[in-house]
Design a protein that fits this description.
The chain is α/β, with parallel strands linked by helices and 166 residues long. It is 35% helix and 17% strand. It has a single domain, classed as Beta-carbonic Anhydrase, Chain A (3-Layer(aba) Sandwich), CATH 3.40.1050.
Length: 166
């Protein structure tokens, strides 16, 4: 049985149980979290959140890409979020690749150059700062004052805040 088949079976058990309480589409805490897709990060547990309290956006590296800006703009302008928490993490796979190297690999294997940026990075703290700056300078986000960045330690589960002036 595949992982997808396992997930479908789990969903059947979930849906057969008590129906979830109805929730509003707007996150009750007014929070949007941008983090890495890394499977070691249980975002809700790590931040003490429950379903319905925050938007959680995930991608490779947790970088503030154009698509993340698009999602944050919708989150803020249509769904009431006002704070943005950016979370990168220790031992990230994006630190182990290079943009040029991965782009070349994709092109060699597929015959096509990727039309998206890879956005790898060599230093997690520097990339958190770059992500904070990108979000704070986006004209599409009306609530930029409360954009804060963190590094999550996958070894101990702790967050460390990264400041632009640090």
């Amino acid at each position: 049985m595949s992982a997808i088949d396992d997930a479908i079976k789990a969903n059947e058990r979930f849906a057969a149980g008590s129906p979830p309480a109805p929730l509003a589409a707007k996150p009750s805490r007014g929070l949007a979290v941008v983090t890495c897709m890394d499977a070691r990060i249980d975002v809700l547990a790590a931040l003490g959140l429950s379903t319905g309290e925050a938007h959680v956006l995930r991608n490779a590296g947790g970088v503030v890409s154009d698509d993340v800006i698009r999602s944050l703009a919708i989150s803020q302008r249509r769904l009431g979020t006002r704070e943005v928490m950016l979370i990168h993490h220790t031992n990230c796979g994006m630190e182990t690749i290079s943009d040029d190297g991965f782009s070349t690999e994709l092109q060699e294997e597929t015959g096509l150059a990727p039309d998206f940026p890879i956005e790898s990075f060599a230093d997690v703290e520097s990339d958190v700062r770059a992500s904070i700056k990108k979000a704070r300078h986006s004209p599409f986000l009306p609530h930029r004052d409360e954009v804060r960045g963190f590094v999550y330690d996958v070894g101990n589960g702790r967050l460390r805040e990264i400041r632009l002036d640090g």
